[in-house]
Amino acid sequence: MIGGGHAGTEAAVAAARRGARTVLLTTSLETIGQLSCNPAMGGIAKGTVIREIDALGGVMGRATDLATLQFRMLNRGKGPAVWAPRAQADRGLYRRAVRALLEAQPLLTTVQGSASRLLTGPDGRVCGVETADGRQLLARAVVITTGTFLRGRIHIGTSNSVSGGRAGEAATTTLAEQFGELGIHTERFKTGTPPRIDGRSVDLARLERQDSEIERFDFSWSAFWDRPRREAGRTRHPEQLPCFITFVEQGAKDVVQRRLEESAMYGGAIGTRGPRYCPSIEDKIVRFPDAERHQLYLEPEGHDTQEMYVNGLSTSLPVDAQLELLHAVPGLEHAVMTRPGYAIEYDYVPPTQLWPSLELRTVPGLFLAGQINGTTGYEEAGGQGVVAGLNAAARALELDTVAFGRDRSYIGVLVDDLVTRGVDEPYRLFTSRSEFRLTVRQDNAIPRLYALGESLGLYTEGERRLAERRLRDEAEARVLAETTSVTPEAALPVLDACGESPLSHAVPLFEIAKRQKVALRDLFDATGVGTTLSLDAVTTADLEIKYAGYLARERAAAARLQRLGTLALPQDLAYDRLINVSVEARQKLAARCPATLAEAASIPGVSPADLQNLAFELGRW
Fold first, then answer.
1. What CATH number does residue 537 fall under?
2. Residue 266: pLDDT above 60?
3. Residue 573, Cβ density class (10 Å: 0-12 exposed, 13-18 middle, ≥19 buried)
4. What is the pTM of this model?
5. Are residues 119 and 247 in the same domain?
6. Using an 8 Å Cβ cutoff, are 171 and 149 in contact?
7. At what angle do helices 60-67 and 46-55 cross, to 10 degrees?
8. 3 state DSSP class of 613
9. Averaged over 460-473, what is the pLDDT?
10. Range of the domain at 209
């Protein structure tokens, strides 16, 4: 594994758990698991990805729980089917937790060094890595997870531009040059980060305070691997800290508008695309001129520092303009800027050059994961790392590759979108990208993925017992809901609290749980059953009852997709000869060479009629 960020660490752990001897090569052991930008994990769709990574033995959720400064369950005002866990993390604690988890992982070694070139055999297969100091690390598969380091260039204003993968760290150039020699096409994207400020210089009394909900939630199912400490009255989480909310209002907007041409983005220093859904403050002011104000979150960086992250103020303005901008924000009139924000341009590999295993189609044994594939976000990087690590191990050990279906996980949606649709801007996951979002929820990652993880041998004996307990809890919750009745008197407080009509006679719990506002956990408490079952297990049982009809339809659609997925398409299929398929579809199919009919279905420009004719032509072929 080349790179010690979120993609690299998850790839390394996944490969080692699958049984491959694994080396993680990184330029600095101290920055393994570094939270380069926002010190927060999870959110809409992203929180579900972390739970999926965690369900497969990854470290992101476990390290987050060990470093959580604040936990929020987003979308609490909506039904639990769309709840989304998000945690604010202590940068230092998170980084140290990731390193400790990696060093405790059997078959995994971390090595400090800079990769200078890939080693390839006479047949073109990758067979290892050579470091800048001349060491050769031989391997049957290599995963590259260089993030923004591949020919990275940092911009602060129009005249301050330096080479770098992130502030204070050198970019990677030799690998980028070798990519050209190997025929790997690269393009460039940009992203950015906001300034950091000294929290002691902020007038917090004027700002809205947001506290943690840590007493109600954990991120990882690994809450149970620390059970002896929890039973002793201790917690894995550090002391919780609040976040604060303020706004960019007219005064700050005036600063941006007046100095816009000095921004690297708007002054001509940068011409590449950035993430649409995480725009700079310059983009917000230009694209939404009628917006009255833009919300900012002041987020603590950790217990060992007073530094705060100004979430929502990403910028590439010059340093003095950034300071002027900060001082125009309510509560930040006297803020001390500890680090300026900046934009960064970097090379990425258009991901349609990859197989669904994240192996390059043209370079056997070479896998890519993370921002190098045109994505943005820690969670998207970690999800790709799991896929690349499992499949790199499969390549090394001569095992079957692993496919993540769109109907099984958000990780599957992510990978399928990348390799079949490609990207024209940094890719970010949303619930809207999944056609099975009611099935792939944050509460049911273990039920969805445990069988896969078990078949791949990813769990320790202790983890296996805990996962099976989680599955038993859910099954027991459903049985209790079907076999336990509640009297009108016992149900009345629960129904009153929800504004629901009272019962006229005793009924089974599952009948009342069908009501959208009534929680199965509250019904269990009212009848004195299921009190020892885990919250996630009861939540999953509750949602399966409430949305049974919708889930049945989604699962029928998933079954149809799986049938399409079983129809393999030969890699030497002569698409130009398939005269019943449209010219556009033939061209796009020939360019992508999909492995299955399901992959062909997800390529833009390939119509249902094309698919039907393709299946017919395939039979003739």
1. 1.10.10.1800
2. yes
3. middle
4. 0.90
5. no
6. yes
7. 110
8. helix
9. 93
10. 196-343
